[in-house]
Each structure stands twice: as structure tokens, then as C-alpha cells.
Amino acid sequence: MNNQDTPQPSGISRVVITLMKGVLYQEADPHLWQQLLSLQAQVSEYVAVLGLALLVDEAEGYAFLRHREPEGEEEPLPRLVGRRQLSYPVSLLLALLRHKLAEFDASGEDSRLIISRDEVVEMVATFLPVGVNEAKFVDRIDAHINKIAELGFIRRLRGKENMIEVRRILKAFINAHWLNEMDQRLKEYQRHLQQELPPAEGENA
């Protein structure tokens, strides 16, 4: 029996497969985005069986899957989407970019936050030791930027590799409550840095 009102499995499958690979952006695939919106309830039910929750932000134009926490006495399922252990410099850079995005939103300017690599290096240099070799320091920052790009929080502009767009999905992972504690967190980062720095000449180790 062929029910014309029932969505074709291939439509749901393509949406779910894309979400399992990472974030679905409206601008990257407008057609698939519309499929997701029309099948949102079905997709949510499907991924719930796998212990996942579908998060869709229509205003910002992105969707992704997150581990669904068990409710009540529900037995927790194994994690299909694993937790990522981020290094200290990557965590610091994400925090600084999130703070930059909040300032940008408050200014009421264009919806795309685009900054240069030099700006990123300058932000991070306040909290990480540059050392005697500045070129190596910049190379390390580039490696951290590439890691964050792999996670989907930023992207380098095509033809302008030194320009970086901070993607708005970062707001979904670092929420307002976390941001309100930013000053305290940055102080913690500075203490972390002081603990890692070697003692100055003449000081006791």
C-alpha cells in the first residue's frame, strides 16, 4: 500500500545521515534544510530511539544532534555522540570567541562576525606565553584555529585564509549562563597560565 501522505524514507534518511556527520546549516544546503523543517517531528522521533535529541535554531539557520539525557527513571543509553576532550588553548580560544560574539551582537552590527587571524593571535597572546619565537607561537595558534574549524565553530573565508568567520552555533554550546561567568573563567585561565610559567630568575622553584 502506498500512502501519499507518508514521507519517503530516503528524505528522512538523508537528513539524519547529514546530522549524524555534523551540523546542518541552512546556507550550506537550503533544500535539505527545508526537508528537515518539514520532517522535524519524524526526525526527532527517529533520533530519540538512538538516545539523541534534535536541536534546530531556525533564526540562526543551523541544526545538530545532542546526547539526550534520560528522564525520570529511564535507563541511560550508551553515548552515540561522544564527548570531546578539548585542550586548554582550544578551550580558551572558544571562550574568547564566544565573548567576542556576544560583544558583536550587542553592537547591533552585521549578522556575520568576521575577524582576522592577527586579531585572534592578539586575543590569545594575553593569556598564553608567546615565548622567544613569535613565528612558532603564531603557528600554534593556527593549529588551534584549524581544530576549532574542524569542530564547526568557525570557518576560514574562501580566498582569504587569514580571515575567519565565527559561526553562530557557538552560542548553542556556550550559553548565556556560561558567558555571565566569563570574567571568572578568564581569571582562572590566567592562574592556569601562571602555574605553567617557569619561575623568574632569582625566585625559588
SSE order and pairing:
Elements: H1 9-21, E1 24-25, H2 30-38, H3 40-48, E2 52-57, E3 62-67, H4 88-107, E4 113-116, H5 117-125, H6 134-151, E5 154-157, E6 160-166, H7 170-173, H8 176-180, H9 182-196
Antiparallel strand pairs: 1-3, 2-3, 4-6, 5-6
Helix pairs in contact: 1-2, 4-6
What's the total number of strands?
Answer: 6
Q: How much is the average pLDDT? A: 78
CATH class of the largest domain: Mainly Alpha
**Which segments are poorly predicted (pLDDT under 50) over 5 or more consecutive residues?**
198-205
Radius of gyration computed on alpha carbons: 21 Å
State the end-to-end CA separation. 79 Å
CATH architecture of the largest domain: Orthogonal Bundle
What is the helix content?
40-55%
Return the structural class.
Answer: alpha+beta
Shape: globular
CATH topology of the largest domain: Arc Repressor Mutant, subunit A
Tell me what portion of residues adopts beta-strand conformation.
5-15%
> What is the count of structural domains?
2
Could you give the order of the helices and strands?
HEHHEEHEHHEEHHH
State the strand order across the main sheet.
Answer: 1-3-2
How is the biggest beta sheet arranged?
3 strands, antiparallel
Please work out how many helical segments DSSP would assign: 9
Describe, in short, the structure shown.
The chain is α+β, with helices and mostly antiparallel strands and 205 residues long. It folds into 2 domains: 59 residues; 109 residues, Arc Repressor Mutant, subunit A (Orthogonal Bundle). It is built from 9 helices and 6 strands.
